[in-house]
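step=predict obj=ABC-2 type transport system ATP-binding protein n=305
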Amino acid sequence: MSENPIEVKQLVKTYGDFNAVDGLDMVVHRGEVFALLGPNGAGKTTAVEIMVGTRTRTSGEVSILGEDPGKDRRAWRARVGVVPQNTADFAELTVREVVSHFTAFYPNPFDPDELIEMVGLTAKSRSRASSMSGGQRRRLDVAVGMAGRPDVLFLDEPTTGLDPEARRQAWDLVRFFKERNVTTVLTTHYLDEAEALADRAGIIARGRMRQVGTLSELTTLAGHTTQVICDPIDKDEPRLPKELAVPFNDHTGRVSLATDQPTRVVQELASWAKERGHDEVPGLIVKRPTLEDTYLALVSLEKTE
Ligand SMILES: Nc1ncnc2c1ncn2[C@@H]1O[C@H](COP(=O)(O)OP(=O)(O)OP(=O)(O)O)[C@@H](O)[C@H]1O
């Protein structure tokens, strides 16, 4: 099993009599950004730690770049980048020293200054890691994880604690690597992040992959439809086009239509409004379900099963 850079079959990790990972299956294709989503304690970090070889497994098969991560091979390790969940403690070393130290481990590393620039720490290059903010240290973690110019990158909540601008810069880095065909597994609780970056996402709950697919496939699984919303054109005119007829939304007084054919609905609304002397449908909004809507629906489905 080595067609894909990441293949996991029936992975189990047991602590005492508790299965933190409980038969996890996961495949990530070459060059893909795969978002690993799931509630706290679902088993994401445990699974990632097994995939990068820092935790042993109880059973199951894992192949990362064709190798079993349980067998520590130096050449393999150089091709696997890891940004762990917890920020590392680099004591009194400067940013430049930390990055140079890690790049020196690898056969084909980034140039330290280029890497420092990529994570936006050039101005802090000579500062001690211990004097930096939490967000700046997180960027240093990212630089360390990428030092070896990896083919596969595991990012465990890489943007936790970053300000909005730094988050966007971290996203640009993920895209930078994607353009270079790096396969990336991104564990995150920020669903906008998964939405912005991921080709596919998997939702883990209770140690098992519950749903997996492109974001639009997940949306379909959750049974979500697009909402077309507008202001009522005339409160005394109850008739919407026949096939659009729905009650006005009680809460806001607006018209809200759930549909999987938003283009048709908007066309119908537009001609209906025009017949009533409106060139524009007042207050028109077309709202696609977000990954957050989908995630919450899928996770609550899991809980009721
Ligand atoms: N060393 C350990 N010993 C015992 N139980 C553990 C150990 N490490 C993790 N667990 C348990 O395994 C489960 C999965 O933990 P894990 O950290 O993998 O979850 P997660 O999905 O990454 O959660 P989060 O989103 O909160 O980071 C949790 O119930 C956790 O308490």
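step=describe
The first helix runs from residue 44 to 51.
step=end
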